[in-house]
Amino acid sequence: MKTKITLFALMLLCMPAARAQQVRVTFLTPDIVRIEKSADGAGRQQPSVAVTLQPEAVAVKTAQSGTATSYSSSALKVT
């Protein structure tokens, strides 16, 4: 149940808006994902104070369906 709620929150975070946006999806471990969203499309290069874990080498599969992109690891899927 916790995973479904987390993924629903991520879906809301990634919903499109009227202006250009940039979304970065980083798998830190197979079951921890960092989502960064920039409303101005410029991105953010500042270090996070909430996520301090350095990313592991995680095998991530990417799938495209229409305008949606899905990213999946061995533990979870982000759509």
Give your account of this protein's structure.
The chain is built from one helix and five strands, in the order H-E-E-E-E-E. It has one helix at 2-13; strands spanning 22-29, 32-38, 61-65, 68-72, 77-78. The strands form two sheets. Strands 3-4-5 form a three-stranded antiparallel sheet. The protein is flat and about 30 Å long.
Would you spell out the secondary-structure blueprint of this structure?
Blueprint: H1 2-13, E1 22-29, E2 32-38, E3 61-65, E4 68-72, E5 77-78
* Quaternary organisation of the protein chains: single chain
Label the overall shape: flat
Look at the helices and sheets and give the structural class: alpha+beta
Q: How helix-rich are the residues, as a percent range?
A: 10-25%
Give, in spatial order, the strands making up the sheet with the most strands.
3-4-5
Determine the N-to-C terminus distance: 17 Å
Element order: H for helix, E for strand: HEEEEE
The residue-averaged pLDDT reads 76
How much beta, percentage-wise?
Answer: 25-35%
Major beta sheet summary: 3 strands, antiparallel
Radius of gyration from CA coordinates: 13 Å
Poorly predicted parts = none
E-strand count: 5
Helical element count?
Answer: 1
